[in-house]
Amino acid sequence: MMRRQHKWAYFFTLILFVTLGSWALGGRSMSASAASQRVPASFTVAPELPADNAKRVDYFDFKVTPGQKRVLVLSVTNNAKQTKTFDVTPRIASTNANGILDYGTNNTNPKLPAQLKQIISPARTQSVKVLGKHTVKVSYKFTAPAKTFDGLMLGGFTIAEHNAAKQARSSAKKSTGIVAHVQYVVGLEFYNAIKRTTTAPDVKIGQAGYRLAQARPTLTLGMANKTAGLVGQGQLHATLTNDKQEKVMTFTKQQMTFAPQSQFKLNMDLKTKQLAAGHYVLAGTLTAKGGYSWTFHKDFTVTNAQANNVKRHAANFGPRKTWKDYLMYAIVALAILVLIYEFYKWLKKHLGQNNSDQA
Length: 359
Hints:
It contains five helices and 18 strands. By secondary structure, it is an alpha+beta fold. The strands form five sheets. Strands 2-11-10-4-8 form a five-stranded mixed sheet, with no helix packed on it. Strands 1-3-9-7 form a four-stranded antiparallel sheet.
């Protein structure tokens, strides 16, 4: 009878390990399947480059004279069978919170040689309807800045399906899979002189702060590229210390590119670590292409209100428990109880035998 009970316990334990193994393998298989899915682009975009465009580039890149006019043309091809509407939006390049060149937000810095509405017409999104398997040409009138300027100006055209971002957010809420949001960017670069002189970039580093970014605790560092050219290959190394001079966290940002005449707040992820109210110091070095470097030492204070706000609204990015997780916990607990019970009976039997032998 005892052997039969032991066999049953071993069998139960074997089932547990098989279940756990298939659970783990199934989870990895599902993740690999989701990651391997690729949604083909439903459309393509090609710029019609002018004759004087820079060679070996696939975006608008040309020299201009003050007030010069021309027409910029984009060809949008709908690869789907059904009719679709696409949004084409012109912008002046800015720098986003990750320190990356960004064509999704328009730069309105008054120090720019010209604003968007002065160089591009219409200076707004054009929605174009394209029949399935057809191509439509979208035109914008371009006028160079009225006065000569140093350096260069960067702009671009973003092209996406109409309301694509809204549809992607809606799909993401309904699905746990990967939701593709295809967007093309066609760059626009123009200047008065082909051989631009290289001058030391004028980068200003502003105040540090603490806030939520995408529901995560984040440090911010104000930055501004006050030059008329790109600042490329930016790397930042910084250390955060508290008022006891204890190191809280280190930060590294690489491959940053700052758009001409752009101001932004650089985000540094605290990786779910929340700061208590108090005084802090963020110190480090920023380097850029050409051997340029800037050091900074920024004191800042996290108020009780800021600390409480981050604590209250920060998202929990840990894995969410499902009924399958709790079922697995129950199976494991039951298996442990069975094994403990079997061990108790085995121990009781052997102790009884020893007492009998001694008697």
